[in-house]
Amino acid sequence: MVDLKKSYVVGDVTVHALRGVNLDLARGTFLAVVGASGSGKSTFMNITGLLDRPTAGRYLLEGEDVSGFDRDLRAQLRNRKIGFVFQNFNLLPRTTALENVELPMLYSPDAPSAADRHAKAQRLLDIVGLGPRAHHTPSQLSGGQQQRVAIARALVNDPEILLADEPTGNLDTRTSIEIMEVLQRLNREKGITIILITHEHDIAEYAHREVTFRDGRVVSDRLVQSRRDAAQERAALPEEEAVT
Description:
Blueprint: E1 2-10, E2 13-21, E3 30-34, H1 41-48, E4 56-58, E5 60-61, E6 64-65, H2 71-81, E7 82-86, H3 97-106, H4 114-127, H5 143-155, E8 161-165, H6 173-190, E9 193-198, H7 201-204, E10 209-214, E11 217-223, H8 230-236, H9 239-242
Parallel strand pairs: 3-9, 3-10, 7-8, 8-9
Antiparallel strand pairs: 1-2, 1-4, 5-6, 10-11
Helix pairs in contact: 3-4, 3-5, 4-5, 5-6, 6-8
């Protein structure tokens, strides 16, 4: 991202959400983006995820300037390269975990057969530790289990980038550790680039690198020296707390 800017006009007022952001991110990085409400981190996520376009500046994805892409081109690229995990899970309530995970494949230009969709969705649920609950609906799952379904769904089109927007915001401490363990494992074992949006500095410490936004600018960019290991923290929990 080179001198990236984003402004909105609200009535007679121009809101400068991003004020010249410069940022390089290597493939396979686990980045945490932190900042208070109104700092610009959500706008940054929307542009990174190709949900919005900058007002000025350049956004190069794998060397290609995508900042001027129209809605259709952004949608095509987003479908191929980016997965999303949100704070509120956004699962279809009357649909099983397996069917929720399958859903993005139905919108793929090369949609696989029903049998292949089922097999891939089941495999991803196994990866996030939720295979035995594949035929449960969201109301039959805990918050942490629903977030695991959302992560599996985000992975179903084999994205290279996973954008996680406050993925632990609605979860208790124990469940948050479980979700961060899943994200760390995906980053370490699958090489997926993860961009985590959070306002919690203790959650940011699970990442490799932490970028802090304030008033639409990057005010801090540092390697996380005290990177936390979620798997070790989970293993250290009392037995009754470690049960999913």
